[in-house]
Specification:
alpha/beta
Length: about 550
């Protein structure tokens, strides 16, 4: 019994009382009398039904439990003791008819309707169903739990139904086993809910609302799982969960920080809705037949990831397994993830640069920001300087994105990602050497070969500014116009005129350098112009 107390009842069969006897045809009337005595006893602190064996649907349990109820290690051979199906259906029908039909459709999944819905059975205090076995379908439809509910290590052999159930305090389902279909349709969890290490062998339905923190860490979904239209208001953990079949998150809204870290997806998984806070998909794995889709589902690009998402180090069997459609990726990380064949349609990347704006990944825009999720109060922390190896990883990400977009004939974005790759290669050289390298010269001359206007600007600048030097040094004395045309003749066709005006060796050297510089600038201009029409082949 509860707390290690002896049973104290008269032996009925093999040293067991009528309540604990496992005999399938035990005397129902005698069992009912003992139950009535327990529920009528006002001296006990709780209703102690530890280890009871409920063998018949003819046994009646009260519809209102005013004290703590302990069903630990009990076994229910029948599944309709706590919520009669006919009573639930009649109550639900009566309730829906009592409110306006339009409002019923509009608020079918809202917490308002759940609050108004009349309960079939009410537990006013805590209830303990830990390690309890349910041999038939366990019906908890319309049950109202005012206290903490404990279903840890419970086993639901033929499935379970929690339609319109309300959990006012914490609901614990850790290590619970659902051998067949389970449904939490329109259920309401007003505090925390924990399904950690739970096993779902049958189809699972969670079209319900979670107001507190929710945990599905290490849960295993061996059949299809449906979390469509669910609402998670607190912190939500799916870390190390396994989805062996299809998973649906249609119109699912995560309002608090969310983590799918190290999840395994084996089937088709669809995410729509929103993530209002940071969400992690770090180290997620996709099986051979997996397909993960994030769909904004609107005519315009959706801000599905409001505060950002981390898709770092995804373990994909095939890069084609992940798809993003009509979503903003402005605050999404993809470092160490192979996106060379991922599908990006109508997505929006972050932007970087002042004069020359380009598409950029968030890993580049904010490389020194590391999310700490909810594990610290700050939420994020910043390092003074990213490590050099991180720039190499971001360059690899840009290279993969570039290959992806070139393959899909989207050359404008591919050009931006090529610039991003070159920027990361340059920055990886160090704080000082990045400005003394040839990469930096390549950038300022032609924007890594992606801008023909930049070398044209420098070309014109040299042609129009060098005559000022000729006037300043006394080489040309007849004004700027004469100096400009004389300089143009120096560097083009009439090279013989140089000796008439440029007599000193250092002056000849400067003019020669100008000529070489112009040749270089013209070369970069031609190459950049050619690059606009003929992309690099991968």
């Amino acid at each position: 019994m509860h707390g290690g107390k002896p049973c104290g009842r008269r032996v009925y069969d093999r040293d067991l009382c009528i309540c604990h006897s496992k005999v399938s045809n035990k005397n129902v009337n005698l069992f009912q009398d003992e139950l009535d005595r327990i529920f009528a006893d006002g001296q006990t602190e709780c209703y102690d039904l530890t280890g009871f064996f409920f063998n018949s649907s003819d046994v009646h349990l009260p519809t209102e439990f005013k004290k703590e109820a302990v069903f630990k290690n009990a076994r229910f051979v029948t599944g309709n003791l706590l919520s009669k199906a006919d009573v639930y259906d009649k109550s639900l029908t009566s309730f829906l008819h009592s409110i306006d039909e339009k409002r019923a459709r509009r608020e079918k999944l809202s917490l308002t309707v759940h609050e108004e819905y009349p309960s079939v059975t009410t537990f006013h205090s805590d209830v303990d169903f830990s390690s309890t076995e349910f041999d038939e379908i366990a019906h908890f439809d319309g049950v109202l739990f005012h206290g903490q509910v404990d279903f840890r290590r419970s086993k639901f052999t033929k499935g379970a139904s929690f339609h319109l159930a309300r959990f006012k305090e914490d609901a614990l389902f850790e290590n619970a086993q659902f051998e067949h279909e389970v449904s939490f349709w329109c259920a309401s969890f007003f505090k925390n809910a924990d399904f950690g290490d739970a096993l779902f062998r049958g189809t699972s339905h969670f079209q319900c609302g979670f107001s507190g923190d929710t945990g599905f860490s290490r849960a295993r979904f061996l059949s299809d799982s449906d979390l469509s239209e669910a609402r998670f208001e607190g912190r939500t953990l799916f870390e190390f969960a396994r989805f062996e079949k299809d998973a649906s998150f249609f119109d699912t809204h995560f309002l608090g920080p969310t983590s799918f870290c190290a999840c395994e997806f084996a089937g088709i998984t669809m995410f729509t809705g929103t993530f209002a806070k940071q969400v992690e998909f770090i180290w997620c794995q996709a099986g051979e037949n997996a397909r993960i889709t994030f769909d904004g589902g609107s005519q315009h690009v959706s801000k599905m990831f409001v505060e950002g998402a981390d898709f770092s180090a995804l373990d994909l069997t095939d890069p084609k397994q992940i798809r993003f459609h009509k979503v903003s990726l402005e605050k999404c990380r993809f470092i160490e993830t192979d996106v060379s064949a991922a599908e990006f349609t109508d997505v929006k990347w972050d932007m970087k640069g002042k004069l020359l704006r380009r598409n950029a990944v968030f890993d580049d825009v904010s490389p020194n920001t590391f999310w700490t999720f909810w594990r610290t109060s700050e939420g994020t922390e910043k390092a003074k300087e990213p490590p050099k190896y991180q720039y190499s990883l971001i360059a690899q990400l840009y290279r993969r994105l570039q290959a992806n977009y070139v393959k899909n004939y989207r050359y404008a974005e591919a050009s931006d990602f090529y610039v991003g790759e070159q920027e990361m290669i340059r920055k990886a050289k160090g704080r000082v050497w990045q400005y003394l390298s040839t990469n930096f010269l390549y950038k300022i001359i032609s924007y890594y070969g992606e801008s023909f206007l930049l070398p044209l600007f420098w070309l014109l600048a040299v042609l129009f500014l060098f005559p000022l030097y000729l006037i300043y040094d006394g080489i040309i004395k007849d004004g700027y116009s004469d100096a400009f045309w004389k300089n143009l003749s120096f560097v083009t066709f009439n090279r013989a005129d140089i000796s008439k005006y440029v007599t000193k060796p250092y002056q000849q050297g400067i003019v020669t350098i100008e000529g070489l510089l112009l040749v270089v600038l013209v070369t970069f201009f031609v190459l950049a112009l050619r690059r606009q029409y003929k992309r690099k082949t991968f």
